[in-house]
Structure formats: structure tokens, C-alpha cells
Amino acid sequence: MSKKRVLTGITTSGTPHLGNYVGAIRPAVEASLSGTFDSFFFLADYHALIKCQDPDRVHQSTLEIAAAWLALGLDPKKVTFYRQSDIPEIPQLTWLLTCMTAKGLMNRAHAYKGAVQANEEAGENADSAVTMGLFSYPILMAADILMFNAHRIPVGRDQIQHVEMARDIAQRFNHHYGDHFVLPSAQVDDDASVLQGLDGRKMSKSYGNTIPLFLSEKQLKKHINKIKTNLLEPGEPKDPGDSTVFQIWQAFASPDQTETMRAAFADGIAWGEAKKQLFELINGQLKEPREKYLELIENPSRVESVLQQGAEKARQHSQNLMSVLRNSVGIRPL
Ligand code: TRP
Fold it and tell me: What is the pLDDT of residues 74-119, one digit of tens each?
């Protein structure tokens, strides 16, 4: 039996942070090294244009995200690692799917509905600043997924609806044109893998509370010192359950190290000391990847060549499937 195919995309609009590492990069790299799955990971640069219209940012983010995944152990020989825009069949498939997607389905998408609601609350026209990219973005995402017949799609909770839409669209296409697509399912990690940010909310670029992954040691220390704590003095017992320092510790520590820190909290460890230990723990794990990362950032052509090889691998699937699909919809030589 062939291996189950796992696929996920990373939008290239930001700088990778510790939350991305714990929630997405680390589990994906581990799963891909175990060899249980046939993994597809890609840089979703067409998706980036929906929310980021700063060309330099999109370009730089693409380099940073690719370099981060490679530096953190992604082995491009074991997975298919590519950039969405290197696969011309993806926008082609997007159109075939667009013609099979009910507008009403897109009306129900959370991202679009959220934008409309925000406009109404602000007293603006409902569709103010809503582009067709935002409106039909679930179709582009469906094309990403269906193109490679992926079974499992690891995503955050906010993306479950999009995977379900991909499934609906696939069903409709299959029903009309024949059984071409695997029906995908979202795979959502438990909450344990959601890292808290500096202010205790989920670490996210949109909250501005992130710790970037590849800071210098000095900057990493500085960021860790900014993590919000309460006012308990050294010697006063502290509750690990409501501490961001502890939550982040746990995401990087072994079970033994976690128990040691739990005991230190009970013993009233000073916040400064707990943060110092947290810095050492994280820095120890990131030291080597940081060197690799910086080397790649300084040599973008090496990253480019990895992506080109990935695109070649990915296109072996996409070109085949696209020619079958074109034929099935009636676009074929006379
Ligand atoms: N929209 C996803 C996000 O914002 C990224 C993404 C694009 C994706 N295409 C995908 C994820 C396909 C999984 C599968 O996180």
C-alpha cells in the first residue's frame, strides 16, 4: 500500500517565530523524518498576495521561511518541498475548480465573512477593501491540496473550514467529471502545541507578540525578558498553570526538565532566574540551526536551487494530473 500523503502550505508574509516552530515546523519535520508519510510542504506565495502587497516583504519572507525549514532539519530528499508559484498547474486547476464552486459556498467562508462584519461594524460598505483574492481564496487553497491528492492536511483551527471546502469542491468535481480527486481531511493538533506570546495570548504576528526564531543571542535574551509575568517576589511560590514562561518552557523541555521547573516554581524561583534558564534552553536548541539559517540567508541561490529541484519533483505529479483533468473537462486537441 502506498503511504498516506500529507500536505501543508505556509503563507510567505512574515518572519518565522517560535510559535510557528512549535506548532508547525517541528511536528512537520519530525513526521517527515519518520518516513511514515509522503510529505508535501510548500511556500504559499500566491496566498501571501491576498494579505501582503509589499513586494519586498513577500520576497524576503519566502527566503526566510524556506531557509528556516531547511535549517531546522527538513530534508528535501525525503519530502517534496516547493514554492507554489513554481507550479503553473496550480492556478490552472484553480480555474477549473472555480467553475465548479458555488458562489454561496464562498459567501460562507470565515475570512470573507469576518471582513464583511468588520466593515459593517465600522459603518463602511460591506465589501469595502474586499478583493476577489480574499473572496475566492479557499478555491486556490483547494487547488493546492487537490493537485497532489493529499489525504491529510495539518492546519490550525482557523483553516479547518477551508479544508472542508476543498473536500466539497472535490466531491462536486468528481461527481461531474469522474473520480479524479482524493477527499482530504484536516488534521488539527491539540492545544498543547499552541505557543503563548509575550503577552500570554496565542503567539501570532497579528498580535505583535512574537519571538522570532532566529534572533541573535542578545536579542533572544531581550525578547524573553519581555515575557509578561506577575509581581510575585523571589521566594514566593508561583503557579506554572498561569505562566507564559512555564508554558514556553514546556514546549522546549524534556518531561524531566519540565518537572524540575515545576518544582522550582513551587520553591519560588525568581522570574529573572526562570527567564535566564528559559533563554539557555531555547538558545541551546537553536544555536546550530541559527548558524545554518544565517548561512542560507546569505546564499539565496542555494535555497533557490533546492526549491527548483522541489518544483521539478512536484510537477511530475501536477503536469500529469492537469493533462488528465483538462481532457476530462473537454479541453483537448481536436
Ligand atoms: N491558508 C493557509 C494558512 O493561512 C496556508 C495554506 C495555503 C495552506 N494553501 C494551503 C495550508 C494548503 C494547507 C494546505 O495557514
Answer: 999 999 999 999 999 999 999 999 999 999 999 999 999 999 999 9
**How far, in Å, is the centroid of ligand 1 from the Cα of 11?**
7
Q: Is the CB of 243 under 6 A from ligand 1?
A: no
Alpha-carbon torsion angle 229, 230, 234, 239, nearest 10 = -90
190 has pLDDT over 80: no
Q: Which CATH number fits domain 214-294: 1.50.10.10, 3.30.70.920, 1.10.240.10, 1.10.260.40?
A: 1.10.240.10
At the top level of CATH, the class of 5-194+301-329 is: alpha beta
DSSP 8-state symbol, 17: B
What are the boundaries of each domain within the chain?
5-194+301-329, 214-294
Q: How far apart (Å, rounded) are the C-alpha atoms in residues 180 and 220? A: 48
For residues 139 and 118, what is the distance between their CA atoms, to the nearest angstrom? 23
Model confidence pLDDT, tens digit, residues 236-290: 999 999 999 999 999 999 999 999 999 999 999 999 999 999 999 999 999 999 9
Q: How far is the CA of 162 from the centre of ligand 1 (A)?
A: 8
